[in-house]
Amino acid sequence: MPDSGISCLLSELPSGAHAVVARVRGGEDAQHAQTARRLGELGFIPGEPVHLLRRGPGGREPLAVQIGDTQFALRLLEAGCIEVNPR
C-alpha cells in the first residue's frame, strides 16, 4: 500500500497492511483514556511501524497486529483508537 500521506484508523486497514502509528486517540471518557494509555504502554506510539497480520473470523475481531517484535490481539475498539499512516 503506497504512502498517501492520509491517516486512517488501524481498524480500517486490510489484513497484511503495513503502516506507521500517527497517534493514539484518547476520548473524553475515562474508558477511552485508559485504553489509549494502555496502548501507549504496549508500544503503540507515534513513529512506530505496525503490521496488521490478520483479522478474526469473518474479517472482524480480534485483529492480530505486530509492533516491533511483539504480536498482539486487539479488539476493534482498541484498534479504532490508533491513527496510522499506511505505507
Task: Describe what you observe in this structure.
By secondary structure, this protein is α+β, with helices and mostly antiparallel strands. It has one domain (8-86): Roll (SH3 type barrels). It is 20% helix and 36% strand. The chain is built from two helices and six strands; from the N terminus they run ββαβββαβ. The longest helix is centred in the middle third of the chain and has 13 residues, at 30-42. The radius of gyration is 12 Å and the shape is globular. The model has no long low-confidence stretch (mean pLDDT 91).
Which sequence of strands runs across the widest sheet? 1-6-2-3-4-5
Q: Can you tell me the CATH architecture?
A: Roll
The main pleated sheet reads as: 6 strands, antiparallel
Q: Tally of extended strands?
A: 6
Low-confidence stretches: none
Order of helices and strands: EEHEEEHE
What is the name of the CATH class? Answer: Mainly Beta
In the CATH scheme, what's the topology name? SH3 type barrels
Jot down its keywords.
six-stranded antiparallel sheet; alpha+beta; globular; single chain; SH3 type barrels; 87 residues
